[in-house]
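Notebook entry, structure prediction.
Reason for the run: the old model in the group folder had no record of what sequence produced it. Starting over properly, with the input documented here first.
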Amino acid sequence: MKYKRIIGFFLVVVVVASLWFISKYKDVYKEEVIFNISFINVPNSLTLDSSSKQLNTPVEISATGFTLIWEKIFGHQVKLDFKENTFSRNDTLFFNPTRSIKKIKRSNTLSYEILSADNLDIPIQFKRFKSKKVPVVNKIDLDYTLNYLAVKKPYFQKDSVTITGNDVKVDALYELVITRDSKLTIKDTLTTLEIDLKKIDPELNFEPQMLTLHVEATQMTEGKINIPVRLLNAPTGQQVKLIPDNVQIVYSTAVSNFDQIKAQDISVSINYDLIEELNIAVIPAIEIRNDKIISYRVNPKQVQVLTIK
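New structure, fully documented this time:
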C-alpha cells in the first residue's frame, strides 16, 4: 500500500511539473541566441580561414519557450552570399550582422521573429590566392567515322581561362592542355563535349570551370573527273606526245556540295621548259579553283613526256 502511494505521488508530481512546464514555455519570450553564419559563393581568388568559415553571431529573437530551448541546444544555421554580405575597408573584409539582418530573415523560413543583431564589424580572416590567365590548348584525339571530316579546327567557347589556387602550381602553369583518355568519336555535323576543369586539378579553381569543345564536321563523298593534260611552252619544230593525255582526278567534297564541282574547277598541266630529257615521266601540276574540293588524288600520278625530233 505504501509503495502505491509513493508511485502515485511521483505521478502527480510529474503531471503537475509537465503542466507547469507547458504553461510556462508556451508563452513568447525575447531572448538572445547564437546563429551560426557561413558563406556561399566565396570568390575563387581567396579561401577563408577556419575561424571565419563559420561565425557565431548573437541574435535577439522573439519566440516561444520551446523554440528558445531548441535554438539554445541546437543553434541555427544560416548561409549568406559572401559578396552581398561582406564589405572591404583598408584591404580587410568585414561582416556586420546588423547590415545583413534583412538577408538573415530571408535566408530561412522561421517560426519566430528576429528582432536585432549586434552592430559589430567582424573581420573575415582569409588568404588571397594568385590568379593568372592562360591559353587553352586542345589535345583531344578525334576519330572521324562515316566519312565525316572536319569543317574547321575544333574549338572551345573560350580560348583562355583564369586559374586561381596553389601559388606554386599557378606560377608553373603557362597553358592549360586538355586531353582525354579515349578518342572522341565524330559521327555527326556537330559534336560537343563538356569538360569540367576542376577534375583536371582539384587544387585549382578555374573561371570558367566548364568548357565545351565544339567539333564541326561534314559528311564527305568522292567524285571522279577526267581532265585533259595541257602542255605549256611547247617547243617549235618538235612533236611532243603526252601519255596519257588526260588524267583522272578523284576528289573529296561534302555531300551537300557534290553538284557544285565542275571540270572547269580543275586544271592539269605540264611546263615543257622544265623538261630536261626527251623521254621522261613527270608529275603534272594540279590547280584547284574551287574551295569546296577538300582533297584530291591523281590517277595516274605521272605522265610520260615523249619528244619526237
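Summary: The chain has three domains: 24-127, 130-219, 220-308.
The old model has been moved to the deprecated folder.
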